[in-house]
Amino acid sequence: MNIYQRINEVRKAIDKIVKDKKVDSYMAVTHDNVTGLTREHFVAQGIVIVPRLLSERTVATGTFTSRETPFIRYEATYAFDVVNEEEPKDMFTAVVGAHAIDHGDKAPGKVLSYAKKALVLKLLELESVSEEEARQEQHKPKVEPGKSVAREVWDTMTQKQQSTLMDISVMIIDLLKEGDDQKAFE
């Protein structure tokens, strides 16, 4: 099998991963969780992933810990060679950039872990779900033909609710136009 067929075998074996760490107000997938879920499949398929540092830089953030230790932002770009162990010339390279903020010497390791996690999640097209999401089923509301659920809900809202909703909609559209998708989502 070539490298793409091997990767596809891993993709067949794994389709989702559970978010396992609470970060601020959301759940995230950790590097260790991704590695734990995928390693045995990569080994079984003879896939080796080799990172190469292409560029790096350290930037002062201007912020400090309570003991006045400075936080730094470490930025790096890696080339990951995804190799067929049986035919090392059968490979491809993916480039991934990442960054981390730290007040010690762990930033470079954090960046490498994040970059590899991102590579594997995207390479395998893994869906990341929380445990609650994994159990819930989604259903579309039942609507009579020719009727709009949005119109029905809108008609039941007070004038103040309608006005507030319009104001929020305008703010979201403005943020999207400015390219600030994250703030629009929040």
Structural commentary:
This protein is of the alpha+beta class and 186 residues long. It contains seven helices and seven strands; from the N terminus they run αβββαβββαβαααα. It has a three-stranded antiparallel beta sheet with strand order 4-5-6. A hairpin with a 5-residue loop joins strand 4 and strand 5. Helix 1 (3-13) crosses helix 2 (31-45) and helix 2 crosses helix 3. The longest helix is centred in the last third of the chain and has 19 residues, at 159-177. The radius of gyration is 23 Å and the shape is extended. The model has no long low-confidence stretch (mean pLDDT 86).
Key terms for this structure?
186 residues, alpha+beta
Architecture blueprint of SSEs:
Layout: H1 3-13, E1 16-18, E2 21-23, E3 26-28, H2 31-45, E4 47-64, E5 70-84, E6 87-102, H3 107-123, E7 127-129, H4 131-135, H5 149-156, H6 159-177, H7 181-185
Parallel strand pairs: 1-7
Antiparallel strand pairs: 2-3, 4-5, 5-6
Helix pairs in contact: 1-2, 2-3
Cα Rg: 23 Å
Q: Could you tell me the number of beta strands?
A: 7
Determine the number of helices (DSSP H or I, runs of at least 4 residues).
7
Which strand order spans the largest sheet, edge to edge or round the barrel?
Answer: 4-5-6
Task: Report the β-strand fraction as a percent range.
Answer: 25-35%
The outline comes out as: extended
For the biggest sheet, the summary is:
3 strands, antiparallel
The topology string of helices and strands comes to HEEEHEEEHEHHHH
Low-confidence stretches: none
Mean of all residue-level pLDDT scores: 86
Tell me the structural class: alpha+beta
Distance between the termini: 44 Å
Helix coverage percent: 40-55%
